Amino acid sequence: MKKLLYGFCLLVIVSCKKQLPVIQPTIITEKTPNDTDDPAIWVNPNDASKSIVFGTDKETNGGVYAFNLDGKIIKEKSITNIKRPNNVDLEYGFKLNDSTTTDIIAFTERERQQIRVFSVPDMKPLDNGGFKVFADAKDPEHNLPMGIALYKSPITKSIYAIVGRKSGPETGYLYQYKLNSDSLGVHANLVRKFGGFSGKKEIEAIAVDNENGIVYYSDEGHCIRKYYAEPSMGNEELSCFGSQYFTKDIEGIAIAKYQDKGFLIVSNQQAHTFNVFDLKTNAFIKELNLGTIETDGCDITTVALSSKFPNGLFVSMNDEKNFFFHDLELLKLN
Question: What is residue 185's predicted lDDT score, i.e. its pLDDT?
């Protein structure tokens, strides 16, 4: 009797999951050649309607594709012939010299064991072919970069790349590199190794709250981990939360900031949904079905971009070689 009742309860839960309403996307992008993975949104400071969504296409002949807000690929802004790009992130105002700054994107190139850095929107390489990462790794899988997030310190204005990998040790799984520029070019200097790892799956999705100096990352089969992003604040884990709300893999992370509150939106990959958490308390708020399948990466901006996205934009990877764009109002976060 107990087994029958337990089975019935499970059936009810599954049925409720299936009935979660689908929030239809505003735009579905053109398809990439191979396998979409992770997006990053660049907000054009001069004309927000000309903002660009960058998305990785993960394969040996992969690339980072640029999309306009209609979901069309911008060929001249796309970067191709990249050896298995995984995750991508973006930051504003990188100082090239005393008089010049540029916005940048950075992405991992797994098969070359490096990260790449390009200027935006002119898409010029700033890395002399790439910066090697995890150079001291002894295990072959420990030097295969996957996740990346850029952090701009509100204290020093320095920009850092925080990089995850296919596999790694239980402590010091993430490496943090400071991006510097001098007369010889741009450099990536290792400043610390930090972050716990359960050993269950891998760590790919990383996101940073610049204002509060906090980094979040998905220990995929375990929890969402939370640390200080500022190296001087130390390597103590602040929280490990959320595991009970995920079917299996905890994946892509996006951070939405408003004047009075913030939200963490995290892909519940095998459930094909997203879980929303309070950024300050880590408390679970709700689950969303945005129509995507097996979402890896996602990104968000609360800036009004165009008539299609007057409330901001949420971008999520879909397992059909494309990305879904949702006007932020559809998520009803605020």
Answer: 92
Within-domain flag for 40: yes
Does residue 215 lie within any of the structural domains?
yes
**Residue-number span of the structural domain to which 134 is assigned:** 20-331
Do 160 and 151 form a contact (C-beta atoms < 8 A)? Answer: yes
Tokens 């100096």 correspond to what residue?
213
pLDDT digit string (tens) for 312-327?
Answer: 999 999 999 999 999 9
- Domain of 267, CATH number, reads 2.120.10.30
Token pair in block for residue 101: 């700054």
Q: Residue 18 — pLDDT band, cuts 50, 70, 90?
A: low
In a 3-state reduction of DSSP, which class is residue 35?
A: coil
Q: Is residue 322 part of a domain?
A: yes
- pLDDT at residue 11 tops 80: no
Q: Which residues of 260-299 are buried (b: 16+ CB within 10 A; e: fewer)?
A: eebbbbbbbbebbbbbbbebeebeeeeebbbbbeebbbbb
Return d(Cα 246, Cα 262) in angstroms, integer: 21
3-class state of residue 112 by DSSP = helix
Is residue 159 within 8 A of residue 94, CB to CB? The reply is yes
Residue 280 placed within a domain: yes
The structure's pTM equals 0.93
Q: Which of 305, 306, 317, 312 is nearest to 334 (CA)?
A: 312
Q: Where are the alpha helices (DSSP H) in 48-176?
A: none
For the chain, the domain total comes to: 1
Question: What one-character-per-residue DSSP string does 206-250 give?
Answer: EEEETTTTEEEEEETTTEEEEEESSGGG-S---EEE-GGG-SS-E
239-277: per-residue pLDDT in tens?
A: 999 999 999 999 999 999 999 899 999 999 999 999 999
Which residues on adjacent β-strands are paired with residue 84? none
